[in-house]
């Protein structure tokens, strides 16, 4: 699984509509409205890197109201669940 974080600038009066349209695209798992330099952040999860190359410029960038995107590809995922599982491997309560 390949994860990418896509920061999106959108036309201000169309942010909710843009977010909903992007959220409906296959491969997009979540869309958040955010503070800061960008208006939205989309989490993209696909099977192969090549799919990101098609999804972002071919689908997300073509949504009406999208002005600019910046894509960051994740190398590794860390979560409390993953860390708890990693630290519990091979340890007994007496350790």
TrEMBL record:
Keywords: DNA-binding
Domain Transcription regulator AsnC/Lrp ligand binding intervals: 6-76
Superkingdom: Bacteria
GO molecular function per UniProt: sequence-specific DNA binding
Swiss-Prot/TrEMBL GO biological process terms: response to amino acid
Pfam annotation, one family: AsnC_trans_reg
The UniProt record lists the keyword DNA-binding: yes
An annotated GO cellular component: cytosol
Name assigned to this protein: DNA-binding Lrp family transcriptional regulator
Species of origin: Planomonospora venezuelensis
Organism lineage string: Bacteria, Bacillati, Actinomycetota, Actinomycetes, Streptosporangiales
């Amino acid at each position: 699984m390949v994860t990418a974080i896509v920061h999106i600038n959108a036309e201000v009066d169309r942010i909710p509509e843009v977010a909903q349209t992007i959220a409906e695209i296959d491969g997009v798992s979540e869309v958040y409205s955010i503070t800061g330099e960008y208006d939205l952040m989309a989490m993209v999860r696909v099977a192969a890197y090549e799919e990101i190359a098609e999804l972002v410029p071919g689908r997300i960038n073509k949504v009406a109201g999208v002005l600019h995107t910046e894509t960051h590809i994740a190398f590794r995922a860390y979560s409390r669940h993953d860390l708890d599982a990693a630290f519990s491997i091979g340890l007994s309560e007496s350790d």
